[in-house]
Fold each of these.
Amino acid sequence: MKHLIDVTFAGLTFPCALRYPETARYFPAPDPAASRVEGESVCLTEKDWQFYLDTDMEDCAHTEFSLLTAAFSDALMDHDRMILHSVALRWRDKAYLIAARSGAGKSTQARCLQELRPGEFGIICGDRPILEFRHSERSEESVPIPVAAHSVRHAAIACHSERSEESASPSCSAGNLPARSPVPKPSPLGKVSPQATDEVIVHPSPWNGKENWYGAEAAPLAGLILLERGDENRLAALSPREAAIRTYAQLIQLCSDSAKIKKAAELTTRLLNSVPIWQLTTFQVPDSTKLLLESVF
Amino acid sequence: MNYQPRPGIVKTTLCGMQVLIPSREASAYCGSIQRLPLIWSVAWEAFSNGMTVENFIPIYAAFTKKGTEACRENLELFCRTMVERGFMLEVPEEAEA
């Protein structure tokens, strides 16, 4: 016997069928103002349970809550929404995502940003925010673009552009700069990708990670930071193609349906065409975080 | 030897690239996403529709302007690599008869 509840995500209320009634306590009360999605309840099938329990996950309410992220992400895709494994920050009424595999240091970066700039950064969602794609007509001057790749290896600073055709900052050129040179911030104005047709709104979700970070309101997405560990602190602009596979790998989904897999690829493409993308390679904090602050925020 | 895609592998477009994405069931054999350059994307479609390696050689030759033997070697290498990575399965030629 399934336990039926209503769950609201990003403006939509879904019916949800639970194996464990206790799982309901992880979800907030549904929003009466949200649009209701009619149809089959979102749930984990017996095949889903069998697949995940074969990986030694415990059969319990908390597991059901964790696995429902994928089931809901699949359901949300039919409504131009998806769930991305990332920390969603809010800065000056815009959202920024730090995406990476587990253990790469997303939470550490978020914590460092808050410590280095107290009061400036809020957290929309600590682990699995919901992205909503809204088709929009973009102006040519609406989206900032990254203009430089910055690398810090111990005391040396090198600055070079990885998007030379679209660089909006004439002061940043290839070659070495003296240590501690002021790093130019990206221009607030610049050309947008010709493929950009979406405004992406980042919404909270109940999946906030082990730190249980949340609280900031939803905001339009202004940038995506892909994080990885390395032997130097380095920040580089990425093209959508360069970011594609790594970003797709962080999209939460059941991966059991070919149509959904294709839809996930479509939404990833739309995401990467809508905002600037950076790769942050982190060797140690807070130096890598300072690089991020100097270049992006 | 002929080849066919493993069931559960999804070919789709990601940021303008042709990629192979394993579904959950196929992920036990090939955990990562595979990017496919154009000619290999065409080969994949051909093998998905049951075309043999031998019958694809002229198509590959026309695309690459290489000789028959070079095409055969490259195709065999591509297919063996895809088998090693779990994306394709070998189909013994006796099964075709």
Amino acid sequence: MRYETVIGLEVHCELATDSKIFCSCSAHSYGAEPNTHVCPACCGMPGMLPIVNKRVVDYGMKAGLMLNCHINRVTTFDKKSYYYPDLPSAYQTTQWFAPVAVNGLVEIETSEGKKGIRIKQIHMEEDAGKLVHDIREDTTHVDFNRTSVPLIEIVSQPDLSSAEEVEAYLERLKALLRYARVAECEMAHGTMRCDVNLSVRPEGSDKLGVRTEMKNMNSIEAIKRAIEYETARHIDAIENGTEVLVQETRRWDDIKGKSYAMRSKETAGDYRYFPDPNVMPVVIDDEWFDSIQASLPEFPEVKREKYTTELGLSDYDAEQIAKSIALCECFEDAYSVCGNAKDAANWMISEVMSNLNARQMTYDMLTLDGKALGELISLVSGNKVGRANAKKILNAMFDDAAVVPSKYAEENGFIISNDTGLMDKVIKTMVEADPKAVADYKGGKEKAIMAIYGKCMKELRGNCDPQMLRTKLIEYINSL
Amino acid sequence: MDKDTLRRLELLNQLSLTEEQKSEMYSFFDRRENDLSELSSIDTENTERMVHVLPILTVVREDKIVQNFDRESLQAGAPETDEGYWCVPRVVE
């Protein structure tokens, strides 16, 4: 018998806000001392009142609109009963009755073609703290720095049917949320986490099989491995009776390549959701909604299309730049100043990306002023600054956002002077110092001249028009 | 309210009730069930959901970091702390 896998995903993304969802503590405590980014509210002290961070709602809406969801104009928060020491109030404040976004659709593309994945809902909620079990044998140590860091949970319908589709779906979510700048979505950093709900049924059947939920996958590759393992386990249980499948939550062990039962799966009733009386309903009026809609970026595929058809970039160049909204914005600003899309793309792909890589920065971390880059590109194309010196200027621009290319070039003697008197003098000196190269050139080895050209350029500190130097050098040697 | 349901509620709420308390619970839930039955009989088909008892909406704050509390004062009343952590009985084997 042939089987099909039915998969639904619950994806948690940490929102890129400065402060937490219900209090003003910093949401960024990676590497910080334990319990240094906490207050009575996120420590669950009695009597503390949560106040919603407006930007969390902004980002929840943005995420919803990027995933083609309907935005609930009245969105409310609820308590989810949860007894575990990583949430000190014994409940999680989340959204159950009126989540910020519902009924979305995400289009993915795999080797099988295009497919729409329905989004059931996106809700905003607080993260839990961290438990440390290996400091002392008898005790669990609790760090509340991460408690109340804002999350969105994106719940898909069970529309996915393979590891390949899951990978495409997660990559699509990452691209869209990063474009909207609402979340970093980096699984390695824990800013994107994914639980997989999976069942197996005979191909063509409309009845769902026993569903298990898998947790603890830390990369897309681990998720793919977990799906393949779990699918095989379910089919083996159905066909060979190796075990009785039960609805449960399982923990994935990527080193052993196996999943293990954690606990019987809770149902919504077990969580005893009820409206949180401490958090007032949030009403999204037209003005607020419109401002969020107006702030949405173009989708990556729209950028790619525009770059190739309107600006004449190659598919490869357009693909590279459209990888990140930060690259797109920098490129577009640079192009608006220098007026040459191909030049701007070349600088982005070669120099800007190299600088980011050398500084171990992701593309999304780019804050370079695109208009200043455009000015730099114009200086090079107008033969006012040599390329080698322009790279030095770009490096300075990465180090200091206040660097103005033309001013920096002047202050550091990078402006091409085209002082022909000085050029003639340097050419004469360098030619006389290398008679062998001159003889080789005259003997037909055209490349021999490059050694002298390089020495001249170095002596002139790159401050000359390369073409003029080359022409004058050839003329001088020919005149000998 | 039957025995299994009450046992499940005990587990979910991390409680261990005495027989006397259980007996009180049966009677309590029976009374609440009658109340709920009465409420369920009301037609709310065309009634908008009441989202909050107070007429206060959209209480939000700007996304600004303010760190007003230090760890020592927050942990002053804790039964046990260690290296800046709160300590609780071990929750994994």
